[in-house]
Design brief:
Rossmann fold, single chain, binds cobalamin, 10% strand, Methyltransferase, Methionine Synthase (B12-binding Domains), Chain A, domain 1, globular, 217 residues, alpha/beta, 9 helices
């Protein structure tokens, strides 16, 4: 299994989508937990790619192919993660999206997958989501919790912007907001008016579970 972890890490580092897919399949076939592969190999791999890019050792094509390799592995792993779905009713609707101007969607999708795996009904709006789309989806799906992801210091301002839109539309009190993503901190999120800050997909599940337990009694 250790060998597969190393292979998956290398696949992301080398931007090798084929190897990433094959390794993820082999990992599942060997009985490995999908989340372990994400946390112990794929995420460290993409973070290392980001570090090398920041240091000028990798260029944008390597960053893009590393992300593609990670996403390819995630496509294999996702069905195995959501298999534990407990089929809970629609009273636990969560909207999720990456804020406007930001196309990073790997972390957001991981959060969405983990929430689904824990029985929440998740409406994933994708990346680069305009505030008005969040508002429309909130009305369409009667969502009780909205999760926002931001990976850029230039786009994280979309978080308070979205909350202000809900305030000016008179619906702020009907919904709670959770935010996360590399540049977002607990302190910043609280100052931005966010109800919950989460630093990982596992954290998001814990917070959502507590939120709905309190709300639904
Ligand atoms: C992969 C990547 C890309 C890929 C994205 C592919 C995709 N489809 O997502 C590509 C190549 C497209 C890309 C583009 C760019 N990128 Co980029 N990218 C990254 C990289 C290397 C990894 C991000 C990632 O996927 N991490 C893995 C996931 C699993 O982790 P995560 O996203 O942090 O998510 C976890 C937690 O944060 C949390 N979380 C995330 N969202 C949420 C939401 C909620 C509600 C909760 C509770 C938790 C939560 O849970 C997740 C799982 O545990 C980061 C470096 C880094 N260390 O983060 C740079 C990084 C984010 N990028 C950066 C930059 C600058 C860019 C570009 C501007 C580059 C350019 N010059 O074009 C563009 C931006 C384009 C745009 N408008 O959005 C900078 C941002 C700097 C800054 N401070 O703003 C970073 C930090 C790199 C760096 N060190 O400089 N990028």
């Amino acid at each position: 299994m250790k060998d597969l972890l190393q292979k998956a890490f290398n696949a992301v580092m080398d931007g090798d989508s084929e190897l990433a897919r094959d390794t993820a399949e082999a990992w599942l076939a060997a009985g490995g937990s999908p989340l372990d592969l994400v946390n112990q190999a794929l995420t460290p791999g993409i973070r290392e790619v980001g570090r090398l890019w920041e240091d000028g050792e990798y260029f944008l094509p390597e960053l893009v192919s590393g992300a593609e390799a990670m996403k390819t592995a995630m496509i294999v792993l996702e069905p195995a993660m959501v298999q534990t779905d407990t089929g809970t009713s629609g009273s636990r609707v969560i909207l999720i999206g990456t804020v406007c101007g930001d196309i990073h969607d790997i972390g957001k999708s991981l959060v969405a997958t983990m929430l689904k795996a824990n029985g929440f009904q998740v409406v994933d709006l994708g990346a680069d989501v305009a505030p008005e789309r969040f508002l429309r989806a909130f009305h369409d799906h009667h969502a009780a919790l909205i999760c926002m992801s931001a990976l850029l210091t230039t786009t994280m301002t979309g978080i308070p912007e979205l909350i202000r839109l809900f305030e000016s539309s008179g619906v702020r009190s009907q919904v709670a907001f959770m935010a996360g993503g590399a540049p977002v901190t607990r302190k910043w999120a609280s100052e931005a008016g966010v109800d919950y800050y989460g630093d990982s997909a596992v954290d998001a599940v814990r917070i959502a579970t507590d939120h709905f337990r309190r709300r639904n009694g």
